[in-house]
Write a structure and sequence with these properties.
Elements (H helix, E strand, L loop, with lengths): L8 E3 L7 E3 H14 L7 H12 L3 H12 L3 H15 L3 H15 L1 E2 L2 E2 L4 H14 L5 E6 L6 H10 L10 H6 L4 E8 L8 E8 L7 H4 L13 E9 L9 H16 L5 E4 L1 E2 L3 H9 L10 H6 L8 H12 L10 H9 L8 H21 L1 E3 L6 E5 L2 H8 L3 E6 L6 H7 L3 E6 L4 H9 L8
Parallel strand pairs: 8-9
Antiparallel strand pairs: 1-2, 3-4, 5-6, 6-7, 7-8, 9-14, 10-14, 11-12, 13-14
């Protein structure tokens, strides 16, 4: 805490020549924070003092956050509100929260940053208010109206299906059956805070290549009955934890309903990002926190994972290159196949793994739950983060897609598995209640 270190002389961060009394500067910042909570007219001057101190490095940022954390929540909210009002934009507040979240996770000057729960809660509460539906503008980005600058920005922030080159995103929009919708704060025009990539289709799409491939069948939107949300991205880490993805989906559904009334189904084509790590852990007999055990796969009760014919076909194919496979357990067979590079291009493996991998994915999504790190008790929420996101927003699991993404990333994350979550507007609220009670809604 800089206030308790006594007088300290530092070089001016601007010119490097003159000297600054750091202790006196902290007191000056404390006074500036106080003045932001009173009825005076020098808010801009107070904010200038605070921002100058803030820009002097991580240690000063941490000191400012500690000063704020020591205040009561109402005063913190007043200060955040004054910053917003004076700057007439929430952009610096977003930067502050990004720095705050980063510093909470790292060590500053050899000491672990304080938890600062009070300030964390205040940031989250305030952001939930100023980044709410009434302050958003929905922007349509399509092949006709998207600038190169905006396209580059979107490509840079893409986290679900990233591309090596920004111009490949032009292909995603260079068709009337592909659009991107973004939300902008009315005080931050032309800066997407969150965006969603949308494909129009007739029926569900189960393979991401049918969405992203440069050469694909283009559908007449007038004949489409389904929209596929295939990527949702928040563009600022400082907006985490306030439901930006949920708000984007809600406003996207509203936009589609108004502009394309023929659409009757809203679905996603989503990754299963932790499935491979999960299955690998179980196959190594290391997943002590999971319900599924290696023994369960080997016992294969009631052929819940493999049929006899599938196991036989896989075994015979493996024996061609490894005679020892004749004695393998089912878990060994599965491990051996999944270790083969591009196993999905082998017709025997691809045909006979569909049922086992699909059922293992279903088991994972239906049964595996998060664990409380302190008590080690099972929670009610799904282990998979994407599943938890969509089910907590009122969707249900509508389809599991084998080899839905055989890109390098798709295989690395989930052995190529993808799923469709369905958003049924009439039942979304009841679905949320079911999920909050631990029920995983599946309609396959």
């Amino acid at each position: 805490d800089l206030r308790h270190r006594g007088p300290e002389i530092i070089s001016c961060p601007t010119c490097g020549r003159c000297e600054i009394d750091l202790f006196g500067l902290v007191e000056k910042v404390e006074k500036a924070l106080y003045l932001l909570t009173t009825e005076h007219t020098e808010y801009s001057y107070s904010l200038e003092i605070i921002k100058s101190f803030y820009d002097m490095g991580d240690e000063r940022k941490s000191a400012l956050f500690q000063l704020l954390d020591a205040m009561n929540p109402k005063r913190i909210e007043t200060i955040l509100n004054q910053i917003f009002a004076v700057m007439d934009t929430p952009e610096w507040l977003i930067t502050m929260r990004e720095d705050f979240m980063r510093l909470r996770k790292m060590k500053v000057s050899g000491q672990k940053a304080a938890a600062m729960k009070n300030l964390n809660d205040s940031f989250e509460d305030y952001f939930s208010k100023i980044f709410n539906f009434q302050y958003f503008n929905t922007r349509l980005c399509n092949y006709q109206n998207t600038s190169v600058k905006l396209l580059k920005y979107i490509a840079e922030k893409e986290g679900v299906h990233p591309s090596e080159h920004w111009w490949s995103f032009e292909d995603r929009l260079n068709s009337p059956d592909r659009i991107i919708l973004s939300l902008e704060h009315f005080k931050m025009p032309s800066i997407p805070l969150v965006y969603i990539e949308i494909a129009f289709s007739k029926g569900l799409i189960g393979n991401i290549e049918k969405v992203l491939a440069a050469k694909r069948n283009v559908i007449d939107i007038a004949k489409a009955d389904t929209v596929i949300f295939y990527s949702v991205n928040t563009t600022f880490s400082g907006l985490a934890g306030i439901g930006m993805g949920r708000k984007m989906i809600i406003l996207a559904k509203k936009f589609i309903n108004e502009k394309y009334p023929q659409i009757s189904r809203f679905a996603t084509l989503s990754p299963v990002p932790k499935f491979r790590a999960y299955l690998d852990t179980v196959l190594k007999n290391e997943g002590h926190e999971f319900l599924l055990k290696q023994k369960s796969i080997d016992e294969n009760a009631k052929h819940c994972f493999f049929t006899d014919n599938e196991a036989l076909a896989i075994r015979q194919e493996l024996v061609k290159s490894n005679p020892q496979a004749e004695k393998y357990r089912l878990s060994d067979l599965l491990t051996s196949v999944l270790c083969v590079e591009q196993w999905y291009k082998n017709p025997v493996f691809k045909a006979n793994l569909k049922h086992p991998i699909t059922n293992l994915t279903l088991y994972y999504m239906k049964n595996e739950k998060r664990t409380d790190r302190k008590t080690l008790k099972r929670l009610l929420t799904a282990f998979d983060p994407v599943e938890n996101f969509h089910l907590s927003n009122g969707a249900y699991l509508g389809a599991i897609n084998y080899c839905g993404n055989t890109s390098e990333r798709g295989i690395k994350e989930s052995y190529g598995m993808m799923v469709n979550y369905i958003y049924n507007g009439k039942k979304m609220d009841s679905n949320k209640l079911h999920y909050s009670d631990g029920e995983i809604l599946i309609k396959i």
